[in-house]
Amino acid sequence: MATFIPEKLSVEYNDGVTATEPVIPRRYTLTHSDVTGELFLAIGKQYAWDKINPLRDEVLGEWKTNGISLYYCVYLNIDQGQYNQNVSAKRAEIFRRELPLALSVIRYGDRFLFDAAPHLDHASIIVNFMSVYPQFARQENWGNFCSYSK
Q: What is d(CA 134, CA 21) in angstroms, rounded to the nearest whole number?
C-alpha cells in the first residue's frame, strides 16, 4: 500500500456542500492519476460522474442512515465494465490492498466535517464489492474512520 501524502490531495466541494454540512446527502468521488500519484476528492450531493476515469477504478462513498445511526457506504466496481474473471480477481486484490489508503484519504480530505461531528469517526464503514462474479461480489464491514484517521 502506498503512503498518503496530503500535499498530493485536491479536495473540491460541489452542489452546495460545504466543509461541514450537510452530512446527508454527502457523496464522495475519489479518483487518482496513475501518472502523477495525485488524488482528487470531490464531495457533493451527487457523485462527480464527470471526474470518473473510463477504467472505473474510483472509490465512491456516501453517508446513510439506519434508523437513527449513521454509517458510511463504499461502492467499488470490481469488473471495470469488462467481464473477465482474471481481470476482476486482480482488481479485487488491488482494491483490498489500497482501500485502507483510500479511507484514510477520505477521512483526511473531509477532516473539517469530522471535526464538526466527531461521532462520525465511530460510524461503521460498509464496503460493497460489486461484481457479476459471486466470489468477488460481497458486502463487508471495514470498521470505522477512527482506524483510518491520520
A: 37
